[in-house]
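User: Um, any thoughts?
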Amino acid sequence: MTTRPRLSPAIADTRRAVRALLPADGLVLVALSGGPDSLALAAATAFEAAGRAGAVIVDHGLQQGSADVAEAAADQARALGLDPVVVVAVTVGSDGGPEAAARAARYRALSEAAQAAGAGAVLLGHTLDDQAETVLLGLARGSGAASLQGMEQVSGIYRRPLLGIRRSVTEQACADAGLTPWNDPQNADPAFTRVRVRHTVLPVLEAQLGPGIAEALARTAEQLREDADALDHFAEEIVEELADIAEAGISLPVSALEANPPALRQRLIRLAVQGEFHLSLSRQHTLEVARLVTDWHGQGPLDLPGLRVRREGGLIVFSARD
């Protein structure tokens, strides 16, 4: 006879977080590594979505014995009552460095597994600590507000119920439920930037500035996301009114672009290009286009990847180029 774990505060917190973000119906899959975050998520999901929850375990093949770790996680998922339980072995490339390549391979595998199983959502075990680390990394890279917004709770099929939960809570939830998580040795390897942020940078900030740094960074991400969503909404409405058909492309009036503050002006430029040419402008390229509005002194056209931009009278004209 299986003994049910007592409903401790940590278990209750993880269940409540999952409940708030579960789709109303349909199969959901948990991305399970076997670590404390994803294991606590799996246990909470098995309880809250009993009968319609499964798991996907991705074996990156980057460490000796990784197949055994994946099978152990699969056994834990089955013991929790998750079904189906799928183990996917992937080949990790090298584009963007080891962390980025592993992430790309993992998300590709998760997406394919969800499609094959007919799942409407994949739950990811990112916590508030992960969010804080992401914001700090974005700040260090100077990569702008988009990076400082951190991870979204809902992005396509992916949902992150634990973004408001500390890592210490997921560890406690596993302990309270009698679950033994796997501790990835790479999570202690200082060769990885995120590991250094986790074990050195954040603790120093907490020691020097006081507790609550992780929560403050997560709040900052949430506020930035709200602001960015509002600006994007206004920009989408404005660009629909302003954009006009031009030869082999579209145009935007200089006067309207000039009348808007920089944050909105640059969004209008990016949205116009994205909508018409399905291209994503970098910040540098966006600022070069904006200078045709704010620093015009007769310069010639800009040749950007896949795009030519020129000023003709009172218009900024965007056209495709080979």
Q: What stands out?
A: The longest strand covers residues 53-59.
